[in-house]
C-alpha cells in the first residue's frame, strides 16, 4: 500500500542545502532552537512501521537559550504548520523566523521563535496528517515545507505483467462500472467517474478479448454519492498458453450491497479495500484483456442529500417524492389502527408543491382525523421524524404513529397510537427535504431524504421614522 502525499512549499529563503525527509507514518515530536534573529535548528522524530527515526536540519552553533519541543499525543496528529520568514539583514538572507503546529484535536503548540516578516499557514486538505518535512538549511533554517497525507492510498496491482500499464489517477468517486467477461477472463472495463459533479468515462482492455468475439457486458450502477464502492474482490490466474490475467471481479458498497461475480472465480483470489475509504480510481495493465488491476481508495464522497431507508411493511405500492428545497407543512390522517394518509407541502425554489399518499378513509373506508403541522419555513425546518410501526391484526405491518421535531426545538403532537416498534429518521446537521415509502389504503412504510439547511433571506432594512 502506498500513501499518496501532497508536497507544499517550501517557504522561506533560497540559500542553504535542499533537504527532503520524505514520507513517514507521522510526526511524534518536534524540537526547535533559535538564535538572536531566526530559527537555526529543528529536530523531527518520525514514526515508521512502529519504529522511530530522527532527522536534524540546521546546527546548534548559533543557538541561544534552551531548545523547546512539542510532543504529539497518542491518537493525535499534526494537521497544519504555521510560521513566518523574513530577510535578516545581519546575515543578508531570508530565514524562518517562527514556527507553530496545530493538531487534529485542535491543540496548538507554543510558538517557536518570534513572528517577524511574512506569515504563512500550510494545512492538509480535509484535515490531512503531516507525514514529513522538506526545505533548505545550512547553519540556520532557510526554508521549510510539509508533506501532507491526501487521504488517498494506492493499492498494488493484482494479476500479471502482460499488456500495457494504465492509470486513471484519482477522482472524487465512482458512479458506474461496466465489466466485460470474455472467457477465460475479464477483457474490458468501463468506469464512469465523478469529476467535480461531472461524469468522466475511462475504459481499458478489449471488448472482443483474445478470441475477437464480443464478450458479455455487465453494468453495476451506484446510487452515488449516497452509495460508493468499499471493496473489490477478484481472482487471477494463468490463462493456458498465455499470461496471468484477471479472471473475475465483484464489488461491495457502503449500503452493504454486493454486485454479482463477473467472470469465473479461480483459486488465486484477492481483495482491494481500505477501511473507511471509498474507491476513487483504478490502475493496472491491459491489452486484449485486463491483465492486472489495482485501485485508489480515498475520502468518502460529500453527501449533500442522504436517503434513509423505509420503516414499516411491504404492502401497498412504492412511492417516492424525491428531493425538494424544504418542507413547509405536513398533514397527517390517523385512521385506526394507523396512519392512513399524508400530505406534504414542499418548497420548490420558492414555490409550494403538494404531494400526497395513502387513503383518507383507510381500511374501514370511514374518514379519519386530520392533523396539520405548519413550519415557519425557512426559519424553521424538520430535523427528525419519530414513529412506530407494527402488524395490524389480519393485515400487514403498517406505520402506526408519527411525530416531528424542528430546528427551533419544537415537537409536534404524536399522531396515531404508539406501539412497541419505534423508529427515528434523522441526519445530524441536515433538514427534511423529501419523503418516500409504500402506501395503499394506509401508509405501509415511510422513509426520508435529509439535505442542506434552507437558506434564510437577509432581513429587510426598515427605514427609521
TrEMBL record:
Molecular functions (GO terms): carbohydrate binding
Record's keyword annotation contains RNA-binding: no
InterPro entries assigned to the protein according to its UniProt record, in alphabetical order: Jacalin-like_lectin_dom (IPR001229), Jacalin-like_lectin_dom_plant (IPR033734), Jacalin-like_lectin_dom_sf (IPR036404)
Thylakoid listed as a keyword: no
Assigned keywords, A-Z: Lectin
Ranges where the Jacalin-type lectin domain occurs: 5-150, 152-299, 305-452
Pfam families named among the record's database cross-references: Jacalin
Family: Belongs to the jacalin lectin family.
Name by which UniProt lists this protein: Jacalin-type lectin domain-containing protein
Species per Swiss-Prot/TrEMBL record: Microthlaspi erraticum
Amino acid at each position: 500500500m502506498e500513501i499518496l502525499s501532497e508536497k507544499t512549499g517550501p517557504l522561506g529563503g533560497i540559500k542553504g542545502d535542499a533537504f527532503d525527509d520524505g514520507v513517514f507514518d507521522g510526526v511524534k515530536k518536534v524540537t526547535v532552537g533559535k538564535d538572536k534573529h531566526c530559527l537555526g535548528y529543528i529536530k523531527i522524530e518520525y514514526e515508521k512501521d512502529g519504529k522511530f527515526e530522527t532527522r536534524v536540519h540546521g546546527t546548534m552553533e548559533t543557538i541561544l537559550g534552551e531548545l523547546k519541543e512539542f510532543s504529539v499525543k497518542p491518537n493525535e496528529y499534526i494537521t497544519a504548520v504555521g510560521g513566518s520568514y523574513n530577510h535578516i539583514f545581519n546575515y543578508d538572507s531570508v530565514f524562518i523566523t517562527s514556527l507553530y503546529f496545530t493538531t487534529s484535536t485542535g491543540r496548538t503548540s507554543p510558538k517557536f521563535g518570534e513572528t517577524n516578516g511574512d506569515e504563512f499557514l500550510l494545512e492538509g486538505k480535509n484535515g490531512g496528517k503531516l507525514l514529513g518535512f522538506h526545505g533548505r538549511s545550512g547553519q540556520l533554517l532557510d526554508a521549510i515545507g510539509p508533506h501532507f497525507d491526501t487521504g488517498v492510498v494506492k493499492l498494488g496491482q493484482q494479476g500479471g505483467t502482460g499488456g500495457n500499464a494504465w492509470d486513471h489517477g484519482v477522482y472524487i468517486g465512482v458512479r458506474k462500472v461496466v465489466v466485460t467477461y470474455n472467457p477465460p477472463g475479464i477483457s474490458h472495463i468501463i468506469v464512469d467517474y465523478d469529476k467535480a459533479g461531472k461524469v468522466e468515462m475511462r475504459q481499458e482492455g478489449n471488448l472482443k478479448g483474445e478470441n475477437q468475439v464480443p464478450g458479455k457486458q455487465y453494468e453495476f450502477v451506484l446510487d452515488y454519492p449516497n452509495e460508493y464502492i468499499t471493496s473489490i474482490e477478484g481472482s487471477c490466474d494463468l490463462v493456458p498458453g498465455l499470461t496471468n490475467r484477471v479472471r473475475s471481479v465483484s464489488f461491495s458498497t457502503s449500503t452493504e450491497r454486493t454486485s454479482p461475480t463477473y467472470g469465473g472465480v479461480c483459486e488465486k483470489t484477492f481483495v482491494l479495500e481500505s477501511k473507511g475509504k471509498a474507491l476513487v480510481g483504478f490502475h493496472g495493465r491491459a491489452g486484449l484483456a485486463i491483465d492486472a488491476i489495482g485501485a485508489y481508495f480515498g475520502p468518502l464522497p460529500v453527501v449533500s442529500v442522504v436517503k434513509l431507508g423505509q420503516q414499516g411493511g411491504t404492502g401497498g405500492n412504492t412511492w417516492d417524492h424525491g428531493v425538494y428545497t424544504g418542507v413547509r407543512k405536513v398533514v397527517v390522517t390517523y385512521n385506526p389502527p394507523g396512519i392512513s394518509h399524508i400530505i406534504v407541502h414542499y418548497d420548490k425554489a420558492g414555490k409550494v408543491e403538494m404531494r400526497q399518499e395513502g387513503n383518507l378513509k383507510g381500511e374501514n373506508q370511514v374518514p379519519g382525523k386530520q392533523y396539520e403541522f405548519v413550519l415557519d419555513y425557512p426559519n424553521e425546518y424538520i430535523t427528525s421524524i419519530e414513529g412506530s410501526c407494527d402488524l395490524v391484526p389480519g393485515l400487514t405491518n403498517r406505520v402506526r404513529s408519527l411525530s416531528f421535531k424542528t430546528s427551533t426545538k419544537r415537537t409536534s403532537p404524536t399522531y396515531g397510537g404508539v406501539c412497541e416498534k419505534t423508529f427515528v429518521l434523522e441526519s445530524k446537521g441536515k433538514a427534511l427535504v423529501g419523503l418516500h415509502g409504500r402506501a395503499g389504503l394506509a401508509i405501509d412504510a415511510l422513509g426520508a431524504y435529509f439535505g442542506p439547511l434552507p437558506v434564510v433571506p437577509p432581513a429587510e432594512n426598515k427605514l427609521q421614522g
